[in-house]
Amino acid sequence: MPLGVDSYWFWLIVAVVLGVAELLLPGVFLVWVAVAAAITGLVTFAADLPFPAQLILFAVAAVAATLGGRRWYAVNPVPSADPLLNDRAARLVGETVELTRGIVNGHGRARVGDSEWNVRGPDSPAGTCMRVVGSEDGALVVRPITALPSETGSTSQA
């Protein structure tokens, strides 16, 4: 081992440093590399492997731990307080938008806040207000707004 340090201490210290870095940095990746370093340290303590073998063990353990971690998170997803945080199109479902370019052959554009989005829906002229009902391939799916009976402007005479 370089530096004249017992090899297992080196790997265990690397594991602790990576574990602390995981706590300080966003994301969940370094924990799996820290696990690989800890495994390498424990195996080196038990078997006194030469340094090249330790590096190979670390590389294999890092790949295995990372793939295992990805699989674990796929099976056990972490619940989010805001599951639509990074899905802006899904957040727009239910919103009313105004067409800036009429929908022709199912495709048009609509103003959403200070930007414009591609939209898909029934053919309609520019200026029509539509309701966002979903998203598909980066475009908002829109439908005409249906007026509620109280919004039709009809009044009954008694």
From TrEMBL:
<dbReference type="GO" id="GO:0005886">
    <property type="term" value="C:plasma membrane"/>
</dbReference>
<keyword id="KW-0472">Membrane</keyword>
<keyword id="KW-0812">Transmembrane</keyword>
<feature type="transmembrane region" description="Helical">
    <location>
        <begin position="9"/>
        <end position="39"/>
    </location>
</feature>
<dbReference type="InterPro" id="IPR002810">
    <property type="entry name" value="NfeD-like_C"/>
</dbReference>
<keyword id="KW-1133">Transmembrane helix</keyword>
<protein>
    <submittedName>
        <fullName>NfeD family protein</fullName>
    </submittedName>
</protein>
<feature type="domain" description="NfeD-like C-terminal">
    <location>
        <begin position="90"/>
        <end position="144"/>
    </location>
</feature>
<dbReference type="Pfam" id="PF01957">
    <property type="entry name" value="NfeD"/>
</dbReference>
<dbReference type="InterPro" id="IPR052165">
    <property type="entry name" value="Membrane_assoc_protease"/>
</dbReference>
